[in-house]
Specification:
This protein is mainly α. It contains 14 helices and seven strands.
Length: 361
């Protein structure tokens, strides 16, 4: 994957400041913007092709154009953005390497080394012997390391002592991040930070034990070859000893069958209860069964009556009391009115006839 990281202060880089002067002297206001775009395009191509900042002349013509390639490349060489590194066989240019002030491109060697580090950290045949030998101690300082830390100087890492060779447990050691970085910056790392002997009693922290548990069979085999105890095995003192053969094991006395029964009702039920033998009967009621009627007794009917809780009892009739009309004393019958008369007009049949006869007269 292509990777280019531009610095936050790239726009104020000394080369771009000099480019502004050249653009002002030439009177071309577009020159500064055009050169910046050309540098960005060339850096992007170098990252995509892993050319390590090297730009062939043909690539410059293809990206910048046949008419603008020569003047733009000459300006970039004058201001220091490009370095002419042509040979008799090929015409080449190289972008300036200023990771802090301009931009940073991952080189091919860095890419291969990153892939190698990732691959080696997942090889059980390589990691297990190194962890069993070194534990959580830096082989350059002797100080303990913390593999769970990813950004501190005491964070645990692995150092390839021979990056260009095949990785083996002999050239692969545990190192702190600070010591590993320092060895890459000093001119003579083997003299200033020499390799120390492995610890006599290596310490295995939680991270190491979890890592070793990823390859339990390899850990057991390598520990046996090295003549050291397997750190993944549980100490025998913590394992519960089995019972001796022939020892009687105490058990609780068996509970009687009668005590395990659970009563379903408060009253005993006859064995001839239909709810025990016939399906479709409802659950038993806690109330005692209702007595048989005298009629059933006389007839000798063996059927049981329904429980008292299921017997239908007619609701008592409650008389409806009405307020007395006018000065009528309570308790006396209320006179018939138009509302209470059957015909809805008031009075009885004879009174209606008398009224009709009077109207005829």
């Amino acid at each position: 994957m292509a990777w280019v990281k531009w610095s936050d202060t790239a726009n104020s880089h000394r080369c771009f400041m000099k480019l502004a002067e050249v653009a002002a002297e030439s009177g071309d206001a577009r020159l500064e913007t055009e050169v910046k775009g050309a540098v960005f395009s060339l850096a992007q191509w170098s990252a995509q092709t892993w050319s390590d900042y090297v730009i062939p002349w043909g690539v410059a013509i293809k990206i910048l154009g046949m008419g603008r390639a020569r003047p733009l490349v000459d300006v970039m060489v004058d201001v220091g953005l490009l370095i002419d590194c042509s040979t008799e066989e090929e015409k080449l240019y190289k972008l300036i390497e200023d990771e802090q002030g301009l931009f940073h491109i991952i080189k091919r060697s860095d890419k291969l080394m990153g892939a190698k580090r990732k691959r080696d950290r997942n090889r059980g045949a390589l990691v297990v012997p190194v962890l069993l030998r070194d534990g959580a101690a830096c082989r350059y300082t002797g100080e303990p390391v913390n593999f769970k830390s990813t950004n501190s100087d005491d964070g645990g890492t692995f150092d390839h002592r021979a990056p260009d060779e095949e990785t083996t447990p002999d050239n692969y050691v545990v190192a702190s991040r600070g010591a590993n970085i320092a060895r890459g910056e000093v001119p003579d790392p083997d003299r200033q930070l020499p390799l120390m002997d492995p610890p006599d009693s290596p310490v295995y922290d939680d991270w190491i034990l979890e890592k070793l548990a990823t390859w339990p069979s390899i850990t057991a085999r390598v520990a046996k070859q090295m003549g050291i105890p397997n750190p993944l095995e549980t100490p025998k003192s913590s394992v519960e000893a089995p019972a001796e053969p022939g020892t009687a094991r105490r058990t609780a006395p068996a509970e009687p069958a009668a005590s395990r029964r659970t009563a379903t009702t408060d009253h005993p039920t006859s064995p001839m209860d239909p709810s025990d033998s016939q399906p479709g009967w409802g659950p038993r009621s806690s109330a005692p069964p209702a007595r048989e009627s005298s009629a059933n007794k006389d007839k000798g009917d063996p059927a049981r009556s329904l429980p008292a809780s299921k017997a239908e009892t007619p609701a008592p009739s409650t008389p409806v009391l009405r307020a007395p009309a006018g000065n009528q004393p309570p308790g006396e019958p209320r006179p018939a009115t138009a509302e209470s008369s059957p015909s809805g007009r008031g009075g009885n049949k004879h009174s209606r006839r008398r009224r009709r006869s009077r109207r005829r007269r």
